[in-house]
Amino acid sequence: DRIVAAFGISPAQVLGHQWVDNGPGWAVIRLASAREVLDLEPDLAQIPDAMVGAIGAHPAGHPFDFELRTFAPGAGVPEDPVCGSMNASVGQWLTGTGAVRGSYRVSQGTRLGRAGEITVSPDGGGTIWVGGATNTLFRGTALV
User: Fold this and answer.
1) Which terminus in the chain has less CB density within 10 A, N or C?
2) Whole-angstrom Cα distance, residue 51 to residue 47?
């Protein structure tokens, strides 16, 4: 109820919801469409400690199967442009329930002006692989 209120949507829009956890724990909701996910204007002040996300399907023929958005105000990140742990956890949920069979592609970061392209692939043995290209933005050495 808190997530629905913070996302400004009706409960009827939620096709499914799940607590997913492969290290960091996430509450994720599934909406009917990528457009609904992209249209979210969350009020994160209502869920300041949350680690939440939303996923929705792109229409057939689109280069991506899903749009995913990840909000982590509990970790000080209003919206993550690409989140491996959320994608892996959602992959476990979607493939584990049979909602998705085989590999699929996710677009993330669109609302932030980023072009995250993620491939989620089950290996058949219960492991989910998350892949995609990266860009090195800085290099350095940390002194401990």
Assistant:
1) C
2) 9
Contacts of 127 (CB under 8 A, 6+ apart): none
Q: pLDDT digit string (tens) for 11-47?
A: 999 999 999 988 888 999 999 999 999 999 999 999 9
Cα distances (Å, whole numbers) of residue 117 to 105, 109, 127: 7, 9, 20
Strands 25-31 and 52-57: parallel
Whole-prediction pTM: 0.90
3-state secondary structure string across 10-61: CHHHEEEEEEEECCCEEEEEEECCHHHHHCCCCCHHHCCCCCEEEEEECCCC
Closest CA to 36 of 12, 53, 54, 49: 54
Residue 78 and residue 71: Cα distance in Å, rounded?
5
Q: Within the chain, what is the greatest distance between any pair of CA atoms?
A: 51
Phi, psi of 56 (to 5 degrees): -150, 150
Structure tokens belonging to residue 33: 């469409």
